[in-house]
Amino acid sequence: MTKTRHHGNRHGRSEEARQAVLDAADDLLVERGFAGVTIEGVAARAGVAKQTIYRWWPSKVDILLDAFVGDMNEELTPPDLGSLADDLTTYLPMLAAFLTETDQGAVFRALAGQAQHDPAVAVRFRDECVVPLRARDRLLLERAVERGELDGDLDVEVAIDRLLGPLYYRVLVTGEPITRTFTDELVRDFLGT
Amino acid sequence: MTKTRHHGNRHGRSEEARQAVLDAADDLLVERGFAGVTIEGVAARAGVAKQTIYRWWPSKVDILLDAFVGDMNEELTPPDLGSLADDLTTYLPMLAAFLTETDQGAVFRALAGQAQHDPAVAVRFRDECVVPLRARDRLLLERAVERGELDGDLDVEVAIDRLLGPLYYRVLVTGEPITRTFTDELVRDFLGT
Amino acid sequence: MTKTRHHGNRHGRSEEARQAVLDAADDLLVERGFAGVTIEGVAARAGVAKQTIYRWWPSKVDILLDAFVGDMNEELTPPDLGSLADDLTTYLPMLAAFLTETDQGAVFRALAGQAQHDPAVAVRFRDECVVPLRARDRLLLERAVERGELDGDLDVEVAIDRLLGPLYYRVLVTGEPITRTFTDELVRDFLGT
Amino acid sequence: MTKTRHHGNRHGRSEEARQAVLDAADDLLVERGFAGVTIEGVAARAGVAKQTIYRWWPSKVDILLDAFVGDMNEELTPPDLGSLADDLTTYLPMLAAFLTETDQGAVFRALAGQAQHDPAVAVRFRDECVVPLRARDRLLLERAVERGELDGDLDVEVAIDRLLGPLYYRVLVTGEPITRTFTDELVRDFLGT
DNA sequence: CAATAAGCGAGACGGTACGTCTCGTCTTTCA
DNA sequence: TGAAAGACGAGACGTACCGTCTCGCTTATTG
């Protein structure tokens, strides 16, 4: 059965339109930056009516959140190499590359930026972007606790802040490149070796 | 001397208008957020013509940069208590309060946000906001080097990243409150005690 | 026979839906004016799907034409009092009241208005509204011809224009109220007495 | 002094923009009908920003009223041939041609149409279009009264209705062409000869 | 001590994008 | 197979700001 393109029906939205909007928003963000993502532009690029966008997303931020959440899982799988040192040594450069070099990372940074301007965005940004990312971070540390590599009394949340804070700081504030040397030092420092 | 409000003159700008614009921009940012800072709004609030703003500032970001730089010095003086441990234990909460609770901090966060959206803003943000702030951080560490409390080979820039990165991460990303416990642990960890 | 409301069947259109649409259009026209008659509004008011309207009427004008034609016969029956003078003296105020005070008249005026904007509407308006109304006018005059009260050579169409033109002019152009004095004068003038 | 094109200044509006809007509205009305006159279309055609239109005209009807009033005087000057019979015999075909064949007439008919849909438009239409046109009509009759060709007791307003009503009726309702024969008969009938 | 020229408040201008509204089409499901 | 439901592409609506411009006033030098 060749699924023909449909233009709306009784039971729910057009998945085709949804995906076209998410892709268009993503593309525009990467090509022209956050200000270049306009509802009109997304609609035109996606070949979709503005109203279709407004029907499903309250604002362009919601589109980007949707776009980010959709693809995040595929792009950043934390390693499981058997030792915390190896895992972190591998994972931190991966995370840095994800944040600075991928389209997903561009969306993350745009949302982080918008979160500074709008408290409501900040809430959604944390719930839908930061929390899932930290879940990956936590996974690594919790495996190490199970293996006995870390003290069971460790406050994992604080540990994540201390381990990854410097990395995010460079990404979002100084713009300094994140070298292997830098991440290795962070790991060494964290492990206390 | 009853200085009557003047409407321009041959040589040089009106300091009165300049200050009114900076104040209005600051107020609007705090009251209504970054999107609420419009040139028209600032002009109206400052009792100034739009053209007067455009004559001196290329964009609203430049106004905010101007406003931030002008008052920063007054608000955040690093302590000099004789020992690095004391200095840092005092300074980190000061910095956290500056970033999260003052109008200056609101401007910093707004500019950090906008820096994510616009590379040109990012450059100016780093040069005019981040660099001066880091100069304060560096001052503390360099004094400690002079006192022999820190190794002379220390890469101060990286040290700042590791010491303050977690703090900025909480401010800009997780929104988690920065407690005294948290800063004390950062200091303890940094000093390796 | 408990005729349940049906939602489509294989035996032709729903008369119930048809009447609901015509009534809703009429009501909306009277309540909110021509611009207030939207297909969506009519559908909602009639409890009918938009598509059901589009299936049977090409545009809202067609709905109004349908509504007008349907009820016209009941509202304006020309008198037959035995003399042209009496007939006209009675008929002109009736016609004026029909045009200015009844829902049917409101529909007529709306269609007349729309006829000014759209030549296609103009054609249908004349065929379906003006011609039937003039048939009533003509009836009176032709009866008078048969009775010998009017010259058989009279161009009846032109006569109608001259007799009723001033009345329509007031209705559609000046908005001046049509008094008994005015219609009586028109009749007197027409009869040349 | 060659008046340079200006883009707004302290002392009021751009006459250039005003005229461009009126012309564009007029052109669009003639080319595409009333529904084809959209604010966006007028703005695009006139090379003007939408806001410039909204600044000066509340609605498209106001633009058309403005356009009609501006040019009316040039297009329809009642004759003064010395006798009422000659004046009317000349004037009625002129008026008919004005209403049915000129761009001004198209605007008049469009406004008359819209007046049927909107009472507020009706008021303005009468004040700004009908009254000035009737002033021309009245002029002819009042000159005849002065010359003693008409009874001084004549109710001029009613006389105009009776003389011109049939003409407007054909223009707005039946669409029947207005021949010289028809106007001559109207004049003859009116003069009672 | 006038003439001059720059800065100023004011605000109209050509634009872009906003978020809303209604249009007329299309698809699905039910009776 | 007609009707209800409602998503869809399309496009005009009226608003908010953008950044540019012109204007006439004010004021501090300059000739």
UniProtKB/TrEMBL annotation, chains A, B, C, D:
Taxonomy of origin reads:
Bacteria, Bacillati, Actinomycetota, Actinomycetes, Pseudonocardiales
User: Which branch of life, at top level?
Assistant: Bacteria
Residue intervals of the HTH tetR-type domain: 15-75
Q: What is this protein called?
A: Mycofactocin system transcriptional regulator
Q: Which residues bind DNA?
A: 38-57
Q: Does the keyword ATP-binding apply?
A: no
Instruction: Write the record's keywords in alphabetical order, separated by commas.
Output: DNA-binding, Transcription, Transcription regulation
Keyword DNA-binding included in the entry's annotation: yes
Q: Which InterPro entries match?
A: Homeodomain-like_sf, HTH-type_TetR-like_transc_reg, HTH_TetR, Tet_transcr_reg_TetR-rel_C_sf, TetR_C
Organism of origin: Kibdelosporangium persicum
